Every structure is written in structure tokens, then in C-alpha cells.
Description:
Blueprint: H1 3-28, H2 35-59, H3 67-93, H4 97-125, H5 132-161, H6 164-167, H7 174-188, H8 190-197, H9 205-279, H10 282-311, H11 316-331, E1 335-339, H12 352-369, E2 376-383, E3 387-395, H13 402-405, H14 419-429, E4 435-441, E5 444-452
Parallel strand pairs: 1-2
Antiparallel strand pairs: 2-3, 3-5, 4-5
Helix pairs in contact: 1-2, 1-4, 1-5, 2-3, 3-4, 3-8, 4-5, 4-7, 4-9, 9-10, 9-11, 11-12, 12-14
Amino acid sequence: MSLTFRLSVIIFVFILIGLGMFWLSVGIVGKKVKAVPFLIYAACSSAAYLFTIYGVSWLFPEDLYSPVVSVLYSLICYPIEAAALGLVIRKCYGIPFCQGMTAAMLSHFIIYTADDVVSQAAGTYSPLFDRMYIYTFITIVLPKLWAFLTAFLAVYILRKSGFYRYFEALFSGRGRTALIMGASLFLMFIWTAIDWFFPEAEPNALYAVFFFSLIAVVLLCVQFLAMYTAGQEKIRMQQETIAQQQAHMELLEELQQEIRAFRHDVTNLFAGLSLQAQEGDLDGIQQFMKKTSSYFDEKLGNEIRQMDCLNNINIYPVRSLLATKLSLMRQKHIQSTLEVLYPVWEKQTVETPDLLRGLGILIDNAIEAVPEKNGQIRLVLLQEDKELYIAVVNNYAAEPDLKALAEKGYTTKGTGHGTGLSSYRRIMDRYPGCIARTYLRDGFFVQELRLPSGGRRPMPENAA
């Protein structure tokens, strides 16, 4: 065979397998194939292959085709390739690295299982041809085409079943993340283990049925586990929503009780005012009006302002979350202020669950950081034309170290509470254009977050 033909086959096979791997990986996480990310992955994958081949050939120049070298090549190259694809998915699609790498390892298992089964069967049962071109097509090109078709079918099935909606739930905790990544790593190396422990195994119909059934079983198990985990997460979120709604109702009940008490007090006050009016005591009436105004602000002003601000938030889960946190602050005797000048749009670029988690972490940090006495927290949500501005401001018992805030695991709440800040950073890193800023000003700890928005702020109803 000519050198041109050999190079053409190598390039064709590399592109086909690489495209199948990339397509299936992004399909698992619910994204679509884009040219630039694929080219970046192809370049990284090529570099990994060349680096591994060069290193192995340098270490074992005379035993390139021995089983030991084959296993060593797999142990080095496969994880590098999966990690490279995970990084590309992380940078280009905003998917967390653990999810991207797990998708890459599962894709590797599916692609190479389909390829190896057909390759071994073709190599064993194909007749020898006088022309090596036909033999090359049957034993090399055809298995790669079958692997690519398998990737296509897998992506189609996963999209139809909505698997990507549940896949993220598998990574809701460190234990689950480690378990799913460990299982995916095992599947990625299953063919390496089979070649090492069973080198004399000959492919047959039962052999092929077993491994293609294994692909189906793995996909079904992963989907079942993902759906179960997502269901448990949904139940937990529903319970949190119910608790938030109860807190909102308690806030309304407290406001109603305050209004009843204020009504009773005002009735008595106006009885005294009537007597002053009959006597023509204008100075007394003016003093009464000032005291009544300040009394109203003290009793009901803050509660009514908070209710007005909550009603300005059109994202109901966020409204419920803030109502819950404000109720908690009152229970802890923390002076709280909520400012929402304009209606907050229902649709934001950041998904509502991520917005809830991020905002909840900031508020929880503020609640934990304020001093036991005279704690103050100010919450600001400002909807602008192109962004949603969020600020959480609180005083503190001990001045936080701003440099240490950038370190993983650091917290303002003490030992053992460092997961919140790292989770917050990880959530915000998923969305391009999000800007987080933290600083100290006049004895207050300020956490700002700017989230890009689309559209235009609606005009007030009384605008001309």
C-alpha cells in the first residue's frame, strides 16, 4: 500500500473516532457540536497521542507491540484524552470539569466497545484478499464507521429521553461525583483489562451480543441512577419551596398582626386628637402628627417596604428565598434592609436553581458573619437594562481576610464551612459574563454580583 493511502486512512480514522467521541460527550451533557471546540479537542487529542507514542517508544524501543506496552499506552493516553475533552467542554460550554470528563470516559467506553468488537470480528473472520485495500476497509475503516454510527444512535436516544436534564444530578455531592467518575474510569479501561487478562479470547456472536448488551445496560443504569437522583433532588427542592412559602405566609401574618395592633393604637390616639381639635390646640395636633408618623414607620414602615420590594421580584422562588431569609434574620434579631427599586425580570441568563444557590450562599455567609449584637444586613437587587446587580452587605464580628477568600475551602463562618464559597464560585464560573466582587468598606463586608441580562427594563405604569 502506498504511503498516501496509509496516511489517508489514519487521518480518516482519527477524525471519525474523534468526532464520535466529541459528539457523544457533548450529547451526554445536553449540548450541540461546535466547530471551534471540536478543533481544540482534536489538537489536544493529537498532542496526547503523539506525546504518549513518543514516550513509550523511547522507553521500549524494541517492544512496541508487547502487551505491557499496550497497557502502558492505554493507562497514559486514555486519561489524558478524557481530561482534555473535559477541559474543552468546561471552557467552551460552561459545564463543570467533573461532568465533562465523566461524559468523555463514558463516550470512550461506548465508542471503543463498538469499534473493538467489530474490529476483532472482522480481523478474525474476514477472508484474505489479494488487494489489501479491501482488507483495510473491512478491518479498519468499517469498524470505525460502525463506532461512529453507534455514537449517533446513542446521542439520538439520550436526546429523546432527555438524559442531559438528569445527568447533572449525579454530581450533587462529593460522594456521588467520586462514585460516578470511578465507575466511568473502570468502564474506560475495561477493554485494556480484557486484553491483558484474556489475550486468547476469540470473538463470536455471543461475544458481540454480550458487549453490545453491556453498552445498553450501562446506559440504562446511568440513566436510571440519574433520574432517581434528580427525583430525590426535586423532592428536596419542593420541600425547601414549601418551607419558603410557609415563611412568606408567616411574614404576612406578622404584618397583619402589626396592622391590627396599630389600628387599636391609632383609635386611642385619635380619641385624644379629637379633644385637642375641639380645644383648638394646633401645636398639640402638629406634635401628634409627627409622633404618629414616626410611630407608623417604627411599627409598620419596614415591613411594608420589604413586602413592596418582595413583590417587585418576579422570580417567585427567589422571592420565597428572600422571605425565608428575612424571617430568619428577624428571629436572630438582625437588622435587615431589602432594596428592590425596579421589577426583577422573570427570565435571566442564570438558571433559577443556580441563582437560588448562589444568592442563598451569600446571604447565609452574611448571617453567620454578623456580630451577635447589632447585626446588620442589607440586600440589594437592581435590575438594569443589561444586567442584574446583586449586593449583600453586612457588618462583621471579625474582619475577614480578603486574600484568603480566593483560596479553596476558606470561609468566613469557621472551620468546616468552606464548601459554600467554593460552590458559589463554581456556580458563577459556569456563566460567561458573571462578575463577582468582594471588598470591605466602612466596617462592612460587601459581596457584589453582576449577572448579564437581555431585553430592556419595563417602563413604570404611570410613565407617559
